[in-house]
Amino acid sequence: MQDKWSALVHRWLSHINAADWAVQPPTVEDSIPPLSTPGEGGDNSQMEQGRSIFMQMITLTSIMAQVCETFYSQTARAEYARAGKFASQLVLRRAKSVQIKLRDWFARLPPSCKMDHHQGTTTPGQPSPIGHFHLAYFATEISIHRRIVQSLDPATSDPYTLYICRSEAKTRLISAMDFVNRLKPEHLRAFWYFASAANFALIGTFGALLQATSAAKEEAAFYAARRTEYM
Questions:
Q1: What is the pTM of this model?
Q2: What are the boundaries of each domain within the chain?
Q3: d(Cα 19, Cα 8) in Å, to the nearest integer?
Q4: Chain centroid offset of residue 38 CA
Q5: Strands, E, within the chain: which ranges?
Q6: CA 62, CA 47: separation in Å to the nearest integer?
Q7: What whole-number distance in Å separates Cα of residue 84 and Cα of residue 151?
Q8: pLDDT at residue 16, rounded to an integer
């Protein structure tokens, strides 16, 4: 099964269109090259956690690919432009399915992939790979809500829809910033994937978008303060 894992890694590090992809998702029965062998000082619990996170990252990456295709591809942009004042309705309709998929994926995460897994299960100070994993999750959520916020037009959007969408976006921003504030040394000393820097920046730019599109000075001041704390 090693060829299967090599193919999965290749897709994860590239941007293969789903229509050209036929490799099945990995399962626990698949053989993953071990990081160490018994007697070499390897930590089996760490290896199992790493494998679990890797498998979940593959699924999250496929969801992010759907987000990019649905909201940020040239075809999607052209469709939203043609929709005119109905663009926000089109965005919201398309966002529903991918939001449900992301929510269901997060709800089914195994215990080893949860943010508080390291508590009581690892040696104090031992690096934990959970940080980059959850940062990728927040980046995916924000990518959806950023497109929703960009599609809203106070002049044409229903006031209730406008309020709900911006409230949900605010909740996602606060959750992401609070996550960053909760990162501990064991997270920061661990391995971080190459996209992590962009994901950190994405949180800040999302705050800037909400600040720039605020309808009231008080709201804009709130986002300005949160961005200052974040930076």
A1: 0.82
A2: 52-230
A3: 15
A4: 35
A5: none
A6: 23
A7: 10
A8: 56
Question: How many residues are given for the chain?
Answer: 231
Tell me the C-alpha distance between 104 and 102, whole Å: 6
Residue holding tokens 């921003």? 173
Provide the sign of the torsion angle of the four alpha carbons 24, 55, 15, 77, taken in this order: positive
43-46: long-range pairs with CB below 8 Å, 24+ = 45/121, 45/122, 46/122
**Residues 94-128, buried b or exposed e (16+ Cβ, 10 A)?**
bbeebbeebeebbeebeebbebebbeeebeeeebb
In this predicted model, what pLDDT tens digit does every residue of 50-73 receive, in sequence order?
A: 788 888 888 898 899 899 989 998
* Helical axes 74-83 vs 87-107, angle rounded to 10°: 130
Of 74, 197, 84, 77, nearest to 131 by C-alpha is 197
Q: Is the dihedral of CA 79, 81, 86, 87 positive or negative?
A: positive
DSSP for 144-181, please give it: HHHHHHHH--TTTS-HHHHHHHHHHHHHHHHHHHHHHH
**For the chain, which ranges sit under pLDDT 50?**
1-14, 35-42, 120-121
The residue among 92, 109, 182, 172 whose CA lies nearest residue 140 is 172
CA separation for the pair 110, 132 (Å, rounded): 16
Contacts for 196 with CB less than 8 Å, ≥ 6 apart: 132, 135, 136
State which H helix or E strand residue 134 sits in: helix 130-151
- Integer Cα distance of 203 and 17 in angstroms: 26
For residue 47, count CB atoms less than 10 angstroms from its CB and return exposed for 0-12, middle for 13-18, buried for 19 or more: middle
Number of continuous H segments (helices) and E segments (strands) in the chain: 9, 0
Q: What is the DSSP letter of 68?
A: I
| DSSP 8-class letter at 24 | P
